Each structure stands twice: as C-alpha cells, then as structure tokens.
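Predict the assembly for these two chains.
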Amino acid sequence: MALRDWPIQQKLTAMLVSISGLVLLLTAAAFAGYQYWSLRQGTLDALSVRGRIIAANSTASLAFANEADARELLSALRVDPHIVAAVLYDKGGRQFAAYPANVAADAVPAVPGPDGYRFERGLLIGFQPVVVAGSPRLGTLYLASDLRAIYDTFRLSGVIGLAVLGVALLAAYLLSRALQRTISQPILALAETAKAVSTRQDYSVRAPQVGADELGVLTNAFNQMLARIQDQDRAVRENAAQLEQRVADRTHELQERNESLRRNAAELLAANTELDAFAYSVSHDLRAPLRSIDGFSQILLEDYSEKLDDAGRESLQRVRAASQRMGTLIDDLLKLARVTRAEIRTEDVDLSGMAREIVADLQRTTPERQVEFEIAPGLKARGDTRLLRVALDNLLRNSWKYTAKQPAPRVEFRSADANGGRTFMVRDNGAGFDMKYADKLFGVFQRLHSAADFEGTGIGLATVRRIINRHGGRIWAEGAVDQGATFYFTL
Amino acid sequence: MNPGKILLVEDNPDDVALTLRALKSHNITNDVVVAQDGAQALDILFGVNGKGPAATELPAVVLLDLKLPKVNGMEVLQRIRADEGTRLLPVVILTSSDEERDVIEGYSLGANSYVRKPVDFVEFTQAAKQLGLYWLLMNRAPPVPRRP
C-alpha cells in the first residue's frame, strides 16, 4: 500500500516513531563515536603511563645489563591480559628482554621503531625511550596491547545502547499511539460522519467536537454545514412532498374531471343516440298518419263531394292544409335535428358560388317572382359545405320570401367588412322586423309574422343559428318594420 | 304470381289503401299483391318453406316499405339480392323517411330506386302513377333467370 493510502493513525504513529527513532539513532551514534574515541585515548594513555613506569623501573637493569631483572620486570605484565607482547631493547637496538618469554621472534619488531604510541595492525603499540635524567639513552621499551578492552567496553555500550533504543522506541510508539489519537480521533470522526452522510443521506448525524483547536473549528464548521444542509434538505423534502401532494391533488381533480367528462360524453352520446332514434322514428312514424289524414280527406273530397256542402268541403280543405303544414313542420324539425347531429367536415367553401346556385334554383322553381339578387364575388369560408348550404339557403330563401310584397324586391349577399373580412351579410328590402323582437328571431317556433302574411314554421333561422354556432361563428340581425332586414354572420 | 304484377310490401293498411287507390285512379290495371310484413313478402317470393316459386311468377317490381314488423325492409332487400332467382328483381323503396342513412343503405343493398311518400295525397297519387307507369310500362324487365 502506498504511503499516502495508509490510515491516518498509522501515518501519525509511523511519523512519530520514525522521528524519535532517528533522533535516538543520531544520539546513539554521536555517543558511540565519542566513546570509541575516548576509549582509545584512555587505553593509549593507560599504556603510555604503564610504559613510562616500566621504563623508569628498567633503567637499572639496562644500565647494569641485568637480563634476569629485566625479564622479572616484564613478567609482571601478566596481570594485564591485554598486553600481548613487550620487548626491552638496549641502547644498540638489540633485544635485551622479551615478554612473554617464548614470544616468536617475528611477532615483535627486530629493532625499535620511532618513539611514541600508535594503533597498528589491530594492536596498540608503543616505543618508550628508557632514559635517566642527565645520562644518555639507555634503551627502548616496546609494548603491544590488543584492543579487546576497547571492543568489550564498546560492545557492552552498544548492547546497552540498543536496549535503550529499543525501549525508547517502544515507549515512543506507545506514546505516539496515545498522542496521535488527539489528532486522528476528530479526523476519523469527521470522516465517519461524512461517510454516514454520503451513504445514508442522513443529515441529522453530527461529528463529535473534541477540542477547540483547528480540528475543533473544522468539526464545528462541518457540523454547521450539516445543519444547514439538513435544513435545506428538510425544506426540499417538504417542497417535494407539497409538490407531490399538489400533483396528486391535481391528478385526482383531473381524474374526477375526466370521469365527469366521460360521464357527460356518455350521457351526451346516449342523448344523441336517443335523439337519433327519436328523429328516425319521427321521420318514419309521424308522417304516416298525416298521409292518411290528407289522403282520406282528399278521397272524401273526390268521392263524396256532392254529399258535402261548401262548409264541409272547406273544412276538409283545412284538414288537408293543416296536415300538410304539419308535414312541413316535421320535415323542418328533422332538418334542425340533422344539423345538430351532423358531423362537421371542414373544407374550403365558395360561398359566392353556393349563393348563385341557390338563387338559380329559386328562380327556376318560381319564375313568376322577379327578385334582384346581388351576390359579391369571391366570398370564401372554411366549413362544412352541406351545412353551410342549408344555412345560406335558409337566409336567401327568407329574404326571397319576405320581399314578396315589395314592388322592387332586392337581396344582396356580401362581406360586411370594408376590407372583405370574415363577417358576411344578407340584406333585403322586404318586410323587416321590429328590433324589439330581434332576440326572438332565432328561437325555435318563433315567428314575427302570421302564417297568413308569410308562410313558415319558425325553424329555419333556428337551424341557421345552430349551423353558424357549430362552426364557432355568430349570427345577429338588424332591421325595421317594412324597411328590410340584414342578417350578419361570422364563421 | 303472374308476371307484370306489383308486390306491395306495406304494413300500414291506410297506406295500402291509398297506394292502391292512387295506382287504380291512373288506370294501372296490373294486379297488386300486398304483403303486410317482411316475413310475408319473403314467403310470397321464396315460398313458405323457402322453396322459391317459378321464376315466371316473380312480380315486375317490388314496392318496399322499410319499417316493417318481423323482418324489416332492408333485410327483405338483402334476401332478394342474395338469392340467385331474385337477384335482378327491380325493387323500389317506398317509405316515409328520407333519412340519409336509409337512402345510402338502400342503394348499397341494391335498391333500384328510392321514393319518399309525400304527405300531400295529390303528390302521392302523382308519385304512385309515375312509379307504376315507369316500372310496368317503360322499364325493360331483367331476363328471367334460369333456376338450377
């Protein structure tokens, strides 16, 4: 694992232990160096002291060439196991006496070296001049000491030092483990809290604040941040819940409205179906008795004419007229019902052309009437051709009908807008009507003229209005008695 | 049934009487056979147990009302057109209604003509006369089908 991925506790511990270990090692190294140097120096000093003492004691032996004395003197060196060899040279440089007695000739220098003490070939050696004040040099003392004393002491120091180092490191480790907690604990707690927040989205948790140091400040800031997030989260949740509730409410409302619409549609469909059945039944069944009434009245008139007086014949004519009028009424009502039921198919409609066809039909069926029709060219609209034809037919036929008593009847069909917009008008100079009753014009069975003056069922304009309304348009009328009428409509 | 006759399928006795009078008053002498409902019309055309009459016994024209008890006019028309022996038989729908769907259905099923009975008896007589003249005198009847 890379160092940066170590847990922070291990990092801190490792840091503290390695620092204290390094310090201890440096200290130990410095101490060891110093001890080594002082040990060597001490040993060297001790050997030189011993050399000087022996040299001083051996002056007599050398001066009197007493070899036995000299050997005796050197053998005293036994007490020091570190002295490996000692040689006494006379003033000519020849070996006078040696220690130990049987020392190999090549183990010691054949002639004395330069005076002084030095480390050489793993040994501490020294050449000490043997002199008496005021006399020439008597000879030279050679001493060789091994370095075991130094090494033993140094080794002991090393062992002690290593033991101390070990103990110190252990102590440092234990201490660092205890101390790093004060730093790592708040960080770990923070990390734990952050993890809880991110994994569980639980913003209610808080990191425990341990002290007032920077970590404490950090923890505190973190907790404050959490608190704010918690507030915002709560607000968001509340909003979401409200929104959800609102959506649910709306959905419910819509469902209810849908349901009610569906019910209405179903009711409408049922009503339409009923109306359909009703109209169908009317169309078939209501006319049959009228035919009988009219037919048998006619048969009476034809077959029993001589048995009836004028009043009787008159009555039968009235019966016939009434039944025929009722036939027309039924037909008109059926037309109105059809207009209501019919499906609208929108297409471009040439109103001018349509009006010209209607007028041509009127003039063909009643050539005796001379009505001046003025139809503006190029009038167009979008709508259902068949229904618009019924509407326009009704309006033009109306004008045609109500101008019957006018000496110079005139009917015009054009756009009511100066700029040729979507408002159309049919104007005549016929019987007109009183504006007081303008709102009654378009009601079913509403008539402003008696049947004696002008025939009619009072259904035509109701049909026209229904057609215009079904196209999303509007129809209204202006007029005055005997001054003609104008019907306006939009599509 | 002798050829050159009219089969009037009509349930309303008043209409039967008026139609007969209208036809007779214009000297249309051909016999008129009346069926009072659809089932009876089918019996007359195809026999009581479905065995058709001789092809020579078919009428010159069928005047068919639509709203009939038991079997309605459209069904009668369907049966006539479905049968090999009566496939080409001229059928005129003569009814009170001129509902568009009736007109469309009638022609779709193969009616030769669709006439609405006017309320005005004078007009009615006129219509009956023209129908009689046209289908009995002017119209060339289809060839008699060979029955297997």
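Chain A has a mean pLDDT of 87. Chain A has nine helices and twelve strands.
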